[in-house]
Amino acid sequence: VDLFRSLMKSAFVVERQPCMPMHPDRPLVIKTGVQFTNKVRLLVKFPELNYQLKIKLLFNTAWFRFAFCTETKQSRKFNILGTNTKVMNMEESNNGSLSAEFKHLASLIVTEELHLITFETEVYHQGLKIDLETHSLPVVVISNICQMPNAWASILWYNMLTNHPKNVNFFTKPPVGTWDQVAEVLSWQFSSTTKRGLTIEQLTTLAEKLLGPSVNYSGCQITWAKFCKENMAGKGFSFWVWLDNIIDLVKKYILALWNEGYIMGFISKERERAILSPKPPGTFLLRFSESSKEGGITFTWVEKDISGKTQIQSVEPYTKQQLNNMSFADIIMGYKIMDATNILVSPLVYLYPDIPKEDAFGKYCRPESAPEPEMGGGDSTNIIQPYLKTKFICVTPLPKISHNPSM
Amino acid sequence: VDLFRSLMKSAFVVERQPCMPMHPDRPLVIKTGVQFTNKVRLLVKFPELNYQLKIKLLFNTAWFRFAFCTETKQSRKFNILGTNTKVMNMEESNNGSLSAEFKHLASLIVTEELHLITFETEVYHQGLKIDLETHSLPVVVISNICQMPNAWASILWYNMLTNHPKNVNFFTKPPVGTWDQVAEVLSWQFSSTTKRGLTIEQLTTLAEKLLGPSVNYSGCQITWAKFCKENMAGKGFSFWVWLDNIIDLVKKYILALWNEGYIMGFISKERERAILSPKPPGTFLLRFSESSKEGGITFTWVEKDISGKTQIQSVEPYTKQQLNNMSFADIIMGYKIMDATNILVSPLVYLYPDIPKEDAFGKYCRPESAPEPEMGGGDSTNIIQPYLKTKFICVTPLPKISHNPSM
DNA sequence: ACAGTTTCCCGTAAATGC
DNA sequence: TGCATTTACGGGAAACTG
User: Fold this and answer.
1) Where is pLDDT greater, at B397 or A260?
2) C-alpha distance across the termini of chain A, in Å
3) Rounded to an integer, what distance in angstroms lies between the CA atom of residue A30 and that of residue B127?
C-alpha cells in the first residue's frame, strides 16, 4: 500500500509550467492581472479510477511561507538568510526596533523573488484516499511588462545552474556560471525564437563584453551581478538588459534579415575595421548599437575619401521608434549622402562580404510605387490632380565645407 | 417646514458632472474599468448643521430602470418606445416568445444609451430628517476608448438641443439641430482645447460637407444621422468621426501650428485652387485630408511646369503614424522633389499668403545638428570616427521621363 | 529626494456575442 | 456570417511607497 501510495505521488507531475499565453517563450514569469496557463497530469491511469480530478492551485503554500519568508504587506515577501528563529534581545537593538536584529534579512528585488505554485488533488483507489501534491518550478511575479527582461534573466540563471525543484532562496546567494553555460543560453535565446542562433564570432564579441579581452573564454566564470545586475562599464544598463532589447529588436523589426544571416550584429569596432578595410568601397555590414539601452542597429561601410584614404563610416543607430515607420531594408536601400550641391549618392553597395545590396534587401522593400487610391484634385474639377507620392528617406547631409570637428 | 424641505432639496446639486480625469474636456462619458470623478454640493450652510454629509451614488436607479428599461444581460438595457406595459397575448406571438410582442422595442447603440447617476444623502435639522437626491446629466458608458468619439457626439447633441435634466430616451427620436447651433459647437470643440476656434471660412467648408453647396447655411437643419450616424457620400465614415480624428490630430501633433493660425485646414479643393493660382510659385497652404478617416494633413502649393503653366500640387496626406516620428514642421521644412538626376529641390517657399516658410516653421523644427553624444569608432582606436548624423526627409521622386498617367 | 514598484489607462488586437 | 461590443494586455506615464 505504501509503495502504491508513493508511486501515485511521483506520478502527479506538472506537464507544462506556468506561462502567460502571450509569452510562450518565457515560461515561469507571470504578471499580475494577466492570465497564465499550466498543465498537471497524473501519469498512471487505471480504468477503475473513474473520477474527475479536482485540482487546487495554491500560491506560496504555508509550508514555504513559514520556512523561508516573513511577510510584509500583502503579497511581497523578504527571504531570510540562515535561521528564521532567533531570541529577541531588546538591548542589542540600536534603533528601538527588533526587526533590525534580523541581520541576515536580505531584501531581494522583485524579479529575484521566487515563488512556488502548488497543485493539490486527491484520488480514491480501492477504498484508499491518497492526497497528491506537486508544484511548479520557481516562478517570478512581475507587475509590469517592463520587468520582463530581468524576470526572465532570473529564470534563465536558475535553470542554467540548478536542477533543484524548489530553491526559492536561490538569489540570496546566486552561484556563478561559466562562459560555456552562458554562451549556450544566449545562443538559445536567439535560436528558440528565430531561425538562427549565435555564431562563434558573435559569441566571442559578447564574451569580450562580459569578461574583457582574452584568447579563450572557455571555463571563465560569470557572476549573476555581471550578467544582470551591474551596469556595464560606462553604460547605464546591464549586459542582459542591453542584449534582451536587441533580441526584442530582432524579433519585432528585423526578423527576416536576421533569419537570412544578413546581420553580423555583434562585432567589435576593431574587428569591423579589420574586415572592412581590405574590401572594395561600398562594402558594408550591419551591427547592433553598443551604446543604446533600447536596442539599435546601424550599418558601417568602407569608402575612399578625396585623398584616396580608406575610411570606415557608420550612421547613428536606428531605434525601434524609427523602424516602426520604415523597415530597415527600406532604410538601407534608400540611405543617401547629400553633398553640398544637394545631390544624393548611396554609399552602400555590397553587403559584406560581396552581396549586391539589391539582391539581399530588394525583396524586403516596400514596392516602389503602388497604385493611387486617392485623387488630390477636387471631384468636380476636370483636371484630375493625383496626390504626389512621397517616401521618407534617410539622408546624411555633408557639411558645406570640410572643417575640423572642434566646432 | 415644507418650504424649508423643498429649499433644501433644490440646494443639493451636482457641481461637477461625472468625468474621467484623463478626459477633462469630455465630461459625461465614462468608461468601464476607468475611474471618474464628480462633485455634489449642498448650497445652504447652517452652522448648526455640523455633520459630515454621506453621499450615496447609484447608477440607473430603480425608478428609471422600471420606467424606461428592460434589462438584458448584466448592465446594458434596451429602451422601450411608448408604453412599457402591455397585456401579453400568446396567440399574437408568432415565434412562441412573448418578447417579440414589444413591437416598439428599439435597440440603441451603446453610445446612444443614456444613463443617470444619482446621488443621495440625508440631513438632520432641528429634529427633522430630510432625504436629498440629485442626479448627473445623462451619461454615456463606453467599454473601450475607441467608442469615445461617438459617445462624445451624443453628449454634444443632447446638450446642444435640450435642457432637460434626465431625458434618457433622447436618442430614440433625436431632434434635428440647425447649422448655427452645430457651427457653434464645432468651433467650440477647437476653442475649448486649443487657442483657436474655427473661422467663418473653415465653418463654411464644413457646412458644405454636411449640407452640400449653398450660399447661406444659416437656419439649415442637420439631423443626428447626418452628423454622426450615416457615412459621408463615398466615404466609409461619418462626418463627426472624420472631424473628431482631425481634432485629435491637431491636439496631439500640430497644436503649435494650429494655435499660430498656420493651418487653413478646412478648405475645398476648388477654393484652394482659386486662392493659390494667382500667387507666386512656391506659395503653399496646409489642409486636412478629406478622405482619411484617421485624420491626415497635407500641403498644397502652386508651381509652374516646364511649359510655364500654373500647376497646383499636393502630397499624399501625412498620418498620425508618420507624425509620430517627425514633426510636421520638420516635414514641411525638409520636403523635397527629387528629379531624375537625384537633385533635391523644395517646392515650398511661402506659407499662404506670403510668409517665408523659415519664418513660420523654423522655430518648430528640430535643431539642425545636435552635439554628438556617441562615437561610432571604437574606444581604443586612435582615429575617433563620429557616427554620421542622419535625418529622415520626405521626398517625391519624379518619374524619369514625363509620360501620360495611364500607366 | 529618489529609486524600485505598482497602478492607471490608452490603443491595438483578438475574442465574444448577437 | 458580419457587425457591434467587450476583453486582453503591452507599453508609456504617473502615482505610490518606503
Assistant:
1) A260
2) 87
3) 58
Mutate to test the interface with B, among A275, A316, A326 (most CBs of B within 10 A): A316
Cβ of B32 near strand C (distance < 7 A): no
**CB crowding A301-310: b at 16 or more within 10 Å, else e:** bbbeeeeeee
B282 CA – D16 C1', rounded, Å: 54
Which 3 state secondary structure label does DSSP give B405? Answer: coil
**Chain B from 286 to 315: CB within 8 A of any A CB:** 291, 298, 300, 311-315
Q: How far is the CA of B150 from the C1' of D4 (A)?
A: 13
Å between A66 CA and nearest CA of chain B: 36
For the entire predicted model, the pTM comes to 0.83
Contact flag, residue A111 CB and nucleic strand C, below 7 A = yes
d(CA A175, CA A153): 14
Q: Do residue B388 and residue A315 have CB atoms under 8 angstroms apart? A: yes
Q: How many CB atoms lie within 10 A of CB A120?
A: 17
Nucleotide nearest residue A22, measured CA to C1': D9
Mutate to test the interface with A, among B290, B388, B400, B407 (most CBs of A within 10 A): B388
Taking each helix axis from N to C terminus, what angle separates B148-161 and B179-191, rounded to the nearest 10 degrees? 130
Distance of C1' in D9 from CA in A272, Å: 41
pLDDT at residue B371 tops 70:
no
Nearest chain B residue to A270 by CA distance is B378
Q: Residue B324: its chain A contacts at CB < 8 A? A: 321, 324-325
Look at A20 and B107; give whichever has higher pLDDT: A20
Coil, strand or helix: which one is A353? coil
Q: In angstroms, rounded to a whole number, what is the distance separating the alpha carbons of residues A170 and A243?
A: 23
Q: pLDDT by residue (tens digit) across B94-111?
A: 332 223 233 334 567 889
**What does the pLDDT read at residue A188?**
95
**By CA distance, what is A336's nearest residue in B?**
B390
Query: CA A35 to CA A27: how far, in whole Å?
Result: 12
Which tens digit of pLDDT belongs to each residue from A270-309? 899 999 999 999 999 999 999 899 999 999 999 888 788 8
Residue B401 buriedness (CB in 10 A; 0-12 / 13-18 / 19+) = exposed
Asked if A289 and A242 touch (Cβ cutoff 8 Å), the reply is no
Q: How far is CA B87 from CA A55, A130, B105, B118, in A?
A: 51, 61, 15, 32
pLDDT value at residue A124:
78
Mean pLDDT of B176-194: 96
What order of strands is seen across the sheet that includes strand A391-397? A344-345, A336-338, A391-397, B391-397, B336-338, B344-345
Among A290, A379, A390, A394, pick the best mutation site for testing chain B contact (most B Cβ within 10 A).
Answer: A390
Strand order in the sheet with B56-59: B56-59, B117-125, B128-135
Q: Do B385 and A270 touch (CB under 8 A)?
A: no
What is chain A's mean pLDDT, rounded? 80
The residues near A158 (Cβ < 8 Å, ≥ 6 apart) are A114, A137, A138, A167, A170
- Interatomic separation, CA of residue B236 and C1' of nucleotide D1, rounded (Å): 20
Whole-number Å distance, CA B109 to C1' D1? 20
Pairing verdict, β A12-19 and B283-288 = unpaired
CA-to-CA dists, residue A312 to A347, B138, B194, angstroms: 11, 67, 49
Would the CB atoms of B390 and A395 count as touching at under 8 Å? yes
Q: List, in sequence order, the alpha helices (H) in A178-300.
A: 179-191, 200-211, 224, 239-253, 255-260, 269-276
Peptide bond into A353 cis (omega under 30): yes
CB neighbours (10 Å) of residue A147?
A: 17
Chain D nucleotides with an atom closer than 7 Å to a protein C-beta:
4-13, 18
Q: Which three cell numbers stand for residue B245?
A: 480624428
In percent, how much of chain B has pLDDT > 70? 80
Q: Which residues, 6 or more positions from B385, have their beta carbon under 8 angstroms from its beta carbon?
A: A311, A312, A313, A314, B375, B376, B377
